[in-house]
Write a structure and sequence with these properties.
The chain has 282 residues and is α/β, with parallel strands linked by helices. The protein is built from ten helices and ten strands. Helices cover 34% and strands 19% of the residues. The strands form two sheets. An eight-stranded mixed β-sheet has the order 6-3-7-2-8-1-10-9, with helices on both faces. Strands 4-5 form a two-stranded antiparallel sheet. The relative contact order is 0.23.
Length: 282
């Protein structure tokens, strides 16, 4: 049977991808951030996942404001890299796992989540940067990927509690898939940052640290953070962290934190990486 073995929380700052693509990871600005990624890559390699479900938000590349799906799952066999205005990132094409993806789509819809199904879509830095952070620069990605998009761009986004419940439904769906697969799930975006307005450059280290601590200590309580609190404490883009709740909901309540890395600044953003493992998958 398929099983979720671990969850990864990862910021998807686009400049992190640019730094890798242009060979700048050893520069004084970027080196402290990238030093923290080595141990995480080793841990992910040891997990030997067959499939990754990557929860992220599209940045007006695959979709526009004409159609705004709250939750969307990609079921294609491959996903081209989006051109975000400077050409596509020089990273491998993302290959999907259509069998598991369609199983997830059916299970989630019958579990009363109204998923949009994408038979064709490009993927942008929201998905590719976390893959690069945790696997480096391989000739091809070391596992299949199922993209799962969440709207955190246009109000109203889903609540943290709803995202957590989606994660729980994903766990039920994966557990019911008959093929023997090792699955990991990413929750991407965040942490505290604001890219415009009078508070541009906002970083709230205390909010970020408390959030990271409570991913293991009090994941249910963490889901009660309101949209207003995210904006007040973590900036206008801080609401991206609701996607981490999807990842957390898919894990055991007593999942164990095995790695954490937090760094400021990463292109005017607080960047974090956390890996949690399921005790039941040990």
């Amino acid at each position: 049977m398929a099983k979720i073995v671990a969850g990864i929380a990862c910021s998807h700052v686009p400049a992190i991808g640019v730094a890798m693509d242009k060979g700048q990871t050893g520069t004084p600005y970027w080196e402290p951030l990238f030093k923290g990624y080595g141990p995480a890559r080793e841990l992910v390699a040891k997990l030997k996942p067959d499939v990754a479900i990557v929860v992220y938000n599209d940045h007006a590349n695959a979709f526009s404001l004409e159609i705004i799906p709250t939750f969307l799952i990609g079921v294609a066999d491959k996903f081209p890299i989006a051109d975000e205005g400077f050409g596509a990132r020089p990273v491998p094409v993302v290959y999907g796992h259509p069998q598991l993806a369609w199983h997830l789509a059916e299970s989630l819809i019958l579990d009363e989540f109204d998923m949009t199904i994408a038979n064709e879509m490009t993927v942008d830095h929201g998905l590719t940067v976390p893959l690069s952070v945790t696997t480096g620069q391989p000739a091809e990605w070391p596992f299949k990927v199922i993209p799962l998009c969440v709207n955190v761009v246009q109000y109203p986004p889903p609540t943290g509690a709803r995202c957590f419940k989606l994660g729980q439904a994903i766990r039920r769906a994966v557990d019911s898939f008959p093929e023997d697969l090792r699955v990991i799930i990413y929750g991407t975006g965040g942490m505290s940052h604001q890219l415009q307005g009078e508070r541009a450059g906002l970083i709230n280290r205390k909010f970020d640290t408390d959030f990271l601590d409570n991913l293991t200590k009090d994941p249910i309580g963490l889901t009660k953070i309101s949209h207003t609190e995210y904006m007040r404490e973590a900036g206008s883009e801080g609401v991206e962290m609701v996607m981490w709740h999807v990842m957390r909901g898919a894990l055991d309540l007593d999942a164990v934190e095995v790695y954490r890395h937090y760094h400021v600044p990463a292109s005017n953003t607080a960047a974090a990486l956390m890996i949690l493992e399921n005790r039941s998958a040990a």
